[in-house]
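Annual report, structural modelling task.

Input specification for the fe (ii) ion complex:
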Amino acid sequence: MLIRPDEIQKVANMFFNAVHEDEIELINQLYDALKANDIEKADKLMDELLVDVEDHFSTEEAMMKEADFFGYPMHKADHDKMRKEIKEVYNRWKENKDPKRVIDFLENKLVPWLKLHVAQWDSITAMHIGD
Ligand SMILES: [Fe+2]
Ligand SMILES: [Fe+2]
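The model returned the following structure:
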């Protein structure tokens, strides 16, 4: 396990919280598979993570647009930055299946980013959208 669910701030929208909890679960599964050097399982989970993250981001973006949230461009820009990084890590994984690179990405990029992003952007967006 890399991250406990309570390490991610709860926000004012239950749907956002549910999406975040599912993502934490998936990140932990992927992390454990990589640590166990289970390449086949990690490969499936990498595919799932890519889809899951895109789903997570695009759902939030649709809800922000619908609610006419003023911070939409900035919140989306932060998603776009991570979309690009995940895609790069994903492509490199498909080339060399090196668990170390993905472990490093999860530990030092994705998880710290997620904590900060939820605290900075998802929390204010959820307050605007409500529950
Ligand atoms: Fe989020
Ligand atoms: Fe977000």
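The pocket of fe (ii) ion (ligand 2) is lined by residues 60, 75, 79, 117, 121-122 (CB under 6 Å).
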